[in-house]
Design goal:
Bound molecules: alpha-D-glucopyranose
CATH topology of the largest domain: TIM Barrel
Order of helices and strands: HEHHHHEHEHHEHHEEEEHEHEEEEEEEE
Radius of gyration: 25 Å
Helix content: 25-40%
CATH superfamily of the largest domain: Glycosidases
Number of strands: 17
Strand order of the largest sheet: 5-4-3-2-1-9-8
Number of domains: 2
């Protein structure tokens, strides 16, 4: 648990939003980098950023209806473009056809819908004139890198970075979560790679300022110094995340289709039931899910994203009891199932629907009542005689201590069926 922010692990599900000048490009948020564009070439998106369909209340409503409890929006991504009215740069939404501070509308809308408010802030900045060209910079292959770097001064950039974070944390009231991205220590002996991290950002001072300005904020772990949680990206950990052998707070960030920014031609959308299994799998290992959407250049949510969120919401309306405030159980689930537990309630998520019976090792004598969560219908419990041999019409006994639950033949028509078990007081 994060001592100063217990809400975080209660919440379990949040919405990540990647939105900026890469949205009109519609081919991944790293487009400037992948296509090695200069600031000048990329500026066409600045000139044509016209989000006439942006309605932060719609985003907020979609998130709330999906069961999400917090949101994190890219205030600035690696391209350096700022969604807010920063006093420290002209490269900001008010100077595009959008003509206003887009971040403020997001903050207000999320708060109005009861969601916690988070900002993503990129430590990298491919627009800032003092950010040196390194091995991950769009201009890495330019013939005149040395010339480009001649006047650049990372100390000045650092000042800008700290100044911008100060703005973000002083201009919008309480901010619940700050997601820094990212540090890249130099794995390459060739000095040109020029990894940047803790030293370049002055991570200690930066984090100290964040804590001072917003004492209850949650900060992630990408400053190359420890934060409040760890943030596995686009993979599902095999078990609880550990640091020095101890379980830590974690949150997996995941995309709907492999891209964070709007990516028109990428149709590799994860089916809703897979997204829900990912959420459940994470909670069963003590983690949150920060699920991303990439709104279009016009500012609305892509219908494919809206459908995914609606599908998650449909499931959450019936099953959120197994998610909010729930976490791992010490009990070991049967194959194709995940356990989550909250107090004396144990939730059995059945990723595959067995015929008639599910056998739960170690739960014999420990369950007082059981029901299907989707409709609150009672489930019959039994324990078999371990010595019973299988005959033509009688199944063999289960190992001692096994609880057997009788299931309907018809699988409930929900993305992931859940059994809710009330454990007896162990006293
Ligand atoms: C990566 C990518 C980035 C994305 C982020 C989300 O670090 O650079 O595009 O914003 O992951 O966690």
């Amino acid at each position: 648990m994060i001592e100063h922010a217990p809400w975080f692990e209660e919440a379990r599900l949040g919405m990540f939003v990647h939105w900026g000048l890469y949205a009109p490009a519609a081919r991944h948020e790293w487009v400037m980098n992948r296509e090695e564009m200069t600031v000048e070439e990329y500026s066409r998106f600045f000139r044509h950023f016209e989000p006439d369909l942006y309605d932060a209340r719609e985003w907020a409503r979609a998130a709330r209806e999906a069961g999400m409890k917090y949101a994190v929006l890219t205030a600035k991504h690696h391209d350096g473009f700022c969604l807010w009215d920063s006093a420290l740069t002209d490269y900001k939404a008010p100077n595009t056809p959008a003509g206003r501070d887009l971040l403020r509308e997001y903050v207000n809308a999320m708060r109005d819908e009861g969601l916690r408010v988070g900002f993503y802030y990129s430590l990298l900045d491919w627009h800032h004139p003092d950010f040196t060209v390194d091995g991950v910079h769009p201009q890495r292959n330019a013939s005149n890198v040395e010339e480009l770097n001649a006047g650049r001064d990372m100390a000045r950039y650092r000042e800008y970075l700290h100044g911008q974070v100060r703005e973000l944390l002083t201009s919008y009231g309480q901010i619940d979560y700050l997601f820094f991205d990212f540090s890249y220590a130099d794995p390459n002996p060739h000095s040109f790679w020029g990894g940047k991290g803790r030293k370049e950002w002055d991570s200690e001072a930066l984090l100290a300022m964040v804590r001072e300005l917003q004492p209850s904020i949650v900060v992630n772990d990408r400053l190359e110094i420890p934060g409040d949680l760890v943030t596995p990206e686009q993979y599902q950990p095999a078990g609880p995340m550990l640091v020095d052998g101890k379980p830590v707070t974690w949150e997996a960030c995941q995309t709907l289709n492999g891209s964070w920014g709007y990516d028109r031609d990428n149709t590799n959308f994860k089916p809703v039931d897979l997204l829900i299994r990912m959420l459940v799998d994470g909670v069963s290992k003590g983690g949150n899910l920060l699920l991303n959407v990439g709104p279009t250049g016009r500012g609305n949510l892509d219908p494919r994203a809206t459908d995914s969120l609606a599908g998650i919401g449909k499931w959450m309306r019936l099953h959120s009891r197994s998610i909010y405030g729930a976490g791992p159980s010490d009990l070991v689930p049967p194959p194709d199932a995940r356990y989550t537990q909250r107090g004396n309630r144990l939730y059995v998520h059945l990723f595959a629907w067995p015929f008639e019976f599910v056998h739960l090792p170690g739960l014999g004598g420990k369950v007082e009542y059981a029901q299907l969560l989707n409709d609150g219908s009672e489930l019959m419990l039994k324990e078999s005689n371990p010595d019973q041999e299988a005959t033509t019409i009688v199944p063999g006994g289960q190992p001692a201590g096994t609880l057997t639950i009788k299931l309907p033949v018809q699988r409930p028509d929900v993305a992931v069926p859940v059994l809710e078990l009330f454990l007896k007081d162990q006293a």
